[in-house]
Each structure stands twice: as structure tokens, then as C-alpha cells.
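Session log. Operator J.P. requested a structure for one protein chain; no other inputs attached. Running the standard single-chain path with C-alpha cell output.
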Amino acid sequence: MPTYEQLYHLSLSSLAEAVEDWRVTARALGELAEEARTGMLAKSRRADWAGANADVSRPFVITTALQFRYAEEKALGIHRLLEDLYEAQHGYRDALRKLEEDARQLGLRIEPDGRVVVRSEFLREGTAEETGYQRAQEATHGLASRVEAVLTASAEADATIARALYELVGDDHSRFSPGTHGGLESAEAEQGRAAVREAVELLEKTYLTDSELGRLRDLLERQRNNEYFAVHLADTLGPEGLVQFWSRMMDEPRHPDLPGGERLDVLRDVREFLGVALGEATRSDLPAMNGWQERLFDVAGDPVAPGDPLSLRGFQVISDLLNHGDYNEDFLVAYGAALVDFEKRDPEAALWREPTGMGLYETLLHDEVHYDPMTGLMKAMSRQPEAATEFFGVTEPQDYAKHVMEREYGSPGGEAVEGSGFAAREAIGEAMAAAAMGSDPNVPNSVPAETGSAHAEVRDRLLSIGYGLGNDFPPEFRVPMARIFAHHSGEVFETARTYSGSDLPIHPRHLAGVNAQIARDPDAYRIVQVGMIPEYVEWVHGDETGEPHWMLDDVGRSIGFLEYGRHAALEIDKDDSSWTGKNFYNLGSAVLGDFPYVGTQIQHGLDQATSRWVAYENGRAAAESESQRNEYYDEGNVYLNVYATQWTALNPEPPEGYSMSGDIWTSEVAQALREAANDGVKGARSNTPSS
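Structure written below.
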């Protein structure tokens, strides 16, 4: 895929010259073809051929004459394809330049690598005018998505034309033959149908040689992102054929030549490209896909080998392919509904124990061995956040979020992830985060997505179910839920600073209870604490009232409320705690990603607060008793003090009614913040279930 900078500065002059050259070439060949038709071809057909060479000479002359017509058709096809490519790339380049102008009007800047950031001059240094910045920051996700869509479309157009040119022209030894391309769309359709015929011949074989498997891999790779190929393949195979083929690959018998290292690499590629094709087919609205989804669900719960109680089931085969590709949101939600319904109907089968004869499959995938079909589905949903949001928001006729968060598991077997967890739970956690955040949690440094009421409803639903799990809250959910807290930092802050009342954005007991479970994992705890720092710094730098018992108190109470989660975690795990007596953090690990640019002064505040938090946390990690933990809200608390110092810099003099010197004023501000933090601890304690 081209970078933003490459497409923005793309020179199309050479392509324009090629378009004109092929137009001239096609016209010249057309003239030659017409001369051949009225001259050589007409005369040869009228002639009375006789003699020993008649059966050879006449066909040779006719074929040679026709070659000119075929050459013209090829040239016309090349001209149309290059012309389509020129128009497409010209449009995509113009679209990027339009997006640059849109970004400027929104107070944003598009970096050469395509990242969208807030312009540094947009927020005047040393001011509290954050409304404009916040609007700009909220617009970054939408603009970044539009940039990504243009770059992807440009790459797909280039790949499609490249495939079409290759199949139109052939290799160096190909002869001219009938047929041409009418442009980009017809090229994809023609390629798709021809490639499917070749693919099906291979897919229907019981066993593929190394050479045949390589051919299949290359074919699938060439046709990735070709909608016509994907749909024609799905329609020709049908759901049953697709399940049967990949189940054979998963259960491929041992053979003297197997498993060779290279063959396993090819099998992994086939798995990936087949998943990509399936995803492409589900996103198509071509008529051939009508009813395909329903036919798939009809066979998904059936054993692939009827009568074998340990046979793979259709759900396991399809979900294995779901590990790769981008799927239609409605398809994923419907597939998830079918899977939940099956697990409800047959709880014993839903334990998804290891099938028989899967040695090669386990060798093939190593740590990706997942017999639980929920794993592949949830991974696909984490890549398609819209589907995850819809799925986790369904409560009738089945409560999908409750089912997947509370479902039972059989023996881990190949399902265990590093440590002692389940791969399915890991994937469910990722999908939970995607559902509540509106973005793929596995994309590093991605622009935060804009979230709305649907994401808030999912967040609250997950918190409610998680709270109900108590100390059985799965450890695999801690980091994903921490990411949700950090993403919804505004609502978390609004709740934690008040922690009582019916009009809060989050139920305070749910927030406190789940926060205690998150804090049982030092990495998850870090995500929450560091994720809240921008919220705190913005509030501190937005307050020039001179009254410490207003915004600054709110920051202190929120800090205390959320830090109590670790107090509760230490009480829950006691001697088994992951915390006691260890230094967990350094400055690099504390920062999850670059904080968005907020002006030099606020950025400096972020850096200060983050470094003080690292020092503060490592210092108190050795504390073991409740009394020792509470002592961290004393005058030596460097983390709280940094906020007091930053606030005092903006409010250096006490307001009217305070009669005190500067030094006493500074101490008064710090004391007010410590008292607020202690109040926050008490508020969290009153909302946290006892261990």
C-alpha cells in the first residue's frame, strides 16, 4: 500500500504517456487488422486451396491474418486498463489533497506516514482554551479513516490492473488470442471466474502435492481483494465444500513427505488467503451470495465426519478461517448468534474438546491452535469493531455479552495461552475492548475512535457483568477492561470524582468493583493510571479560578478512588499478590503511546506527571499493610505534588478571602489535594465489595 506522501506526490505523467502510446498503438493495429481482413484473410477464404500443402497453408494464413485482430484487441484492452488506472489514481491523489484542506480547516495536520495529529499552533500556549482542541482531537479518527480508505483503494486498483495486465498479455511466449478487457471491473470479473475454475480443481482433490498446494497458495494470493473471485469461489464450493476442504487440510494425514517446513509455511499462507477470500465474499452484495450465509449456519453445528463424536464441527472449521480477513459486520453478528444458540442447545459439545487426528494442525499453527470456535470469531470481531459493538449490545433473545463472559470451558489442551489462561477468553477480551472503544485494540498507536451512546451502553453492560463475576473475574479480561477505562477516561473521571448519585455516567459500584479486579494485574493497573493522566492535566491547566477546592479537589478524589483499586487487589490476593515488594515500571513502559499534542505547556505537564507517577508507584510497591499504603498521601507524595505545583503555577496568588503568604498558599493547595485523594479512597472503599 502506498504511503500518504507517495500518493500525495504521485507523478502520473509517465502513465499518461503510456495511455496515449497504447491508444496510438491500438489504432495502428486496427488499421493493420482491417487491411488483413480485407486483403489476406478475404483472399485466403475465397481461394481454392489444393495440393499437398493445402491443409497446412490455408489455416496458417487465416490464423496469421486473425493475429492482427487479436493484437488490436489486446492493445485496446491494455489502453483501457491503463486509462482506468490513470483516472483512478488521479482521483485518489486529488482526494488526498482535498483531505489535506479538510484537515487544515479542522485544526489538524496529516503527517507523511498518514497519521492525523492536532496542529501544534491550534492551542495557544499557556491558555485554557481547550474546547477547540477537543473538537479537533475528536475529528482525528474520522479523518484518519478517510485517509486509510483512499490509500487502500489506490493499492487495490493498482493490484487489480497488474493482475489484469498479466492475464491479458501472458508471459513472453504467449501468442495473441481472442478476448479483451473492458476496464477495471470487467477485468476483475474475468480474472475471478477463470481463477475459480483452477482453484476448484485443486480444492476438490483429496490430497494436494507440494506443487499443487503451492499453485493454490499463489492463486489465492493473486486474487486477494478480488470480490468476483471470492464470491464465485464461495458460490461454487458452497458452505459444505468449503468446510470439507479446510477440514481435510486441518486433519491432513501423516505422510512420508510431511510435515516439511516449506509445506507448513504454504499451508499457513493458504489458511490466511482463504480467510481473506471468505471475508471478501461476506462483504459482497452480488446476487450469488444470497442465502449463502443461511446455508453455512445450517451445517456449522454438524460434525464434519458424521458418527464420530470427536470429529471437528463446522463451527470449528469456519472459525479457524475467521482468524484472517475482514468480514461483513452483519455476517459476524449473525454467525455469533448462531454459535451462541448452538452452545445454549448443546452445552456438552460447547466445551469444544480436542478432536481426534489433529497432529499436523497443531504442528501447523503452534500457539494459534484454537479448537474453540469462539476464538476465531472474537478475533474477527476485534478487527471489525462495529460488529463487536452490535454483538455485545444484544440482550434479547439471548444476552450475548453475558454468555461469552460467563461461559464454561473444557480442558485447556491446545487452548492455553502463555500463563494459565484460555485463548478464547483472550480473544473475547479483545472483542470487548473493540466493542466499547470502537477501534481495534491490537492496532498500535491507532487514533482513538469517536465513541457514542452505543459504545457507552456496551461499556456499562460489560462493567455490570464484570462486577457480578466478583473475584472470579477472568484475568484475561483485566487488560482489555483497563483499555476501556482509559478510552472512556472522561466518564471514568466524572464518576470517580463524585462517586455517589444517580446521574453519574457510570455506576460507581461497578466502576470500583471492576477497578479492583483490573488492579490485580500490574500491567492493567498501569493502563488505567497512565490513561487518566491526560484528563487530570487538562483539568489542572484549565483551572485559573484560584480556588483549590473546586477542579483540583476533583482531580484528587479521582486519583484516590482509582488508586484504591490496588489496595483492594492486595487484600483480595494477599500473599499471592503480584505486587508486593517489586518495582514494575520504568518511564518507557509507563507511556502506552504518544499522548496527542496539546500545546507545549500541557505536554510538559503530561511528561512531568507521568515521570512522577513512575517514581511514586515504584516507591509504594513495597508497602504491604493498609496503614503503610495510606501514608503515601502525605507531603512526600511526588505524584500528587506535581499536580499541586502545576496548578499553583497557574494560580500563584490566593483568591480574595485567603490571607496568607505564597509559601503557605502553596502548602495549602498541596494539603487540599491530599485531603481530596483520601476522600476518594474512602469513596472507593464504600463502593468496593469486600474480599
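Operator note: The longest helix spans residues 54-105.
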